[in-house]
């Protein structure tokens, strides 16, 4: 079953409002449906929404970072009928020639991570769609773009489940002329509550 994209966004926003927990000034905890426990129905609808938006881009691979990007990326790749790859964290593989690697500053952990993808899985000519759970300052997306670049492949767009519009990532991606689809777009946190951007979903797809 496929729901209309606007309804999917509404369900996502409702879930964020009822189950999301604002931590400090800029972190949203959504571990009851996205980051720890996962809502498979919602995730499947999210995958269909991204796939619909990017269906004309002739995508050959979906790329994300472990672990929270995997669920939405897998659901998207299932719809697009292409493989999903997740960049691995945790191990430094900079000296291993079999991997493309990039350095990513982790927003939530405040540490620098090496991420790596086997050279076997991204090839020149691949048209890659990046999917992630959150967009904050854009460092995760930047690292994935770096890897796509090293592989000689093309990044064709970025799909984000929840963007925090008040941080720098949104502008960073647009400045690279990359199509960006963010399903839930948060304008700000106010008294521990989420305030969504007035325009709702942000979609910059050619
Ligand atoms: P960025 O690289 O854009 O600065 O941050 C994006 C990454 O950090 C995402 O992959 C996500 O895992 C994590 N992240 C950033 N902001 C939040 C947030 O408010 N809540 C959660 N749960 N993760 C976040």
Strand content: 25-35%
Specify the CATH class.
Answer: Alpha Beta
Q: Identify the bound ligands.
A: guanosine-5'-monophosphate
Number of strands: 11
Indicate the percent of residues in helices: 25-40%
Mean pLDDT: 94
User: Would you identify the CATH architecture?
Assistant: 3-Layer(aba) Sandwich
- Specify Rg, calculated over alpha carbons: 16 Å
Write the element-wise H/E pattern from the N-terminal end onward: HEEHEHEEEEHEHEEE
What do we call the CATH topology?
Answer: Rossmann fold
Class from helix and strand fractions:
alpha/beta
Number of helices, counting only DSSP H or I runs of 4 residues or more: 5
- Count the domains: 1
Enzyme class: transferase
GO biological process, one term: purine ribonucleoside salvage
Catalytic activity: XMP + diphosphate = xanthine + 5-phospho-alpha-D-ribose 1-diphosphate
Subunit structure: Homodimer.
Characterization of the model:
With 206 residues, this protein is α/β, with parallel strands linked by helices. The protein has a single domain, classed as Rossmann fold. 29% of the residues lie in helices and 33% in strands. α3 (70-80) links the parallel β3 and β4. α2 (40-53) packs across α3 (70-80). The structure holds guanosine-5'-monophosphate. Guanosine-5'-monophosphate is lined by residues 27-30, 35, 65, 68, 107-108, 132-140, 169. The site of guanosine-5'-monophosphate has 19 residues, from β2, β7 and α4.
